[in-house]
Structures are given as structure tokens and as C-alpha cells.
Write the C-alpha cells for this entry.
Amino acid sequence: MVYFIQCGNDGPIKIGKSIDPVRRLQILALSAPSKLRLLATIPGSRDEESRLHRQFAEDRLYGEWFHPSPALLALIASFQDSWNSLCRFEPRLLDLLKTAEAIKDDRAKPAFCANAIWYHGIMQDGTVLPHSLKWELTQLVGWEANTNLLNLRTSGAYGIAYNAIYDALPACRNCSCL
Ligand SMILES: [Zn+2]
């Protein structure tokens, strides 16, 4: 996951990547000059982290720390509204994200197919999950979601969650779906 951690209430913001942003916050706090706050986390890999570092290059102070510019703060606020608010209503989305993030492309194998996992639950080693990731997601958000929370039963909610979770899977490589 990509995280945004701020030093103090208006201090610099670190844009970093960790599979456990809360743990990372605790470690960083040991050597921080002010209280650290985890502003937001978004699903994403090293690529997403690099893209954000480039996007906010002008605000860069040093290393992964950035000036809290209005543009950066606005972006973080938008993340707080969408993915994070969905997860507050439906915490099992985070479990599904963790499942997707734990799936790695074993480069020793000739091919990897994210869509085989997503649509059919067929893993790279040929084992088959009880349910596809898509099926799991449709139980939580979207029109067919098994919930009384109407804000989750929208295509918009499904789209946000789909982007988050599908993007956490490694990209297709040498597979037949391409
Ligand atoms: Zn594929």
C-alpha cells in the first residue's frame, strides 16, 4: 500500500510504500521530531509510489518527504473520501485487498495471468480458489452486494473497490488473455 504520513499538523508529508503502513508509522515515530499522523493509505505498488513522487516533484523536500502543498493535500483528501470511506463501511474490503497484495508473480514460471485469478480464481501454480476475487468483491460492493448499506450497492462503489483490488495484482505476463 502507498501511505501518506504527516509530521505534525502542518509539517512535511512522507509518501512511501509498505505492506503495513501502521507498523511503518510506529517505526518512523521512534525518530520523528513531532507526532506523526497517518493521513491516508491507498492500494498501490512501487509504481504508484514512483508516479506520485514524480507528480509532486516540485514539492519534494528530501527523500520521500514533500511540502504539504494544496495540491497534495487535496489529493490526499480525495483518497480519504473514496477508498477509505468504503472500507470504513465494509472492512472486509481490506481483507480482500490483502489477499490480492499477497499474490506474487513467480518469475520462474513462464506466465502469469491476473485475469485468470480475478475472474476464475485460477492461481499461477494451477490451484483454484474457492471463489474468484471478482465473486468475492461482488458480495461486498456493487448491485449484487449482500448488504443493506445502499451506498455500497452502487456501480461507483464497485468501481473504486475494483480499481483498488485489481490493481494490487501483478500485471499479466505472457498469458493467453492478452
Ligand atoms: Zn492475463
The helical segments are 21-29, 46-55, 70-81, 83-89, 92-102, 114-120, 133-140, 155-168. The chain has two domains: 2-81, 90-168. The longest strand covers residues 36-42.
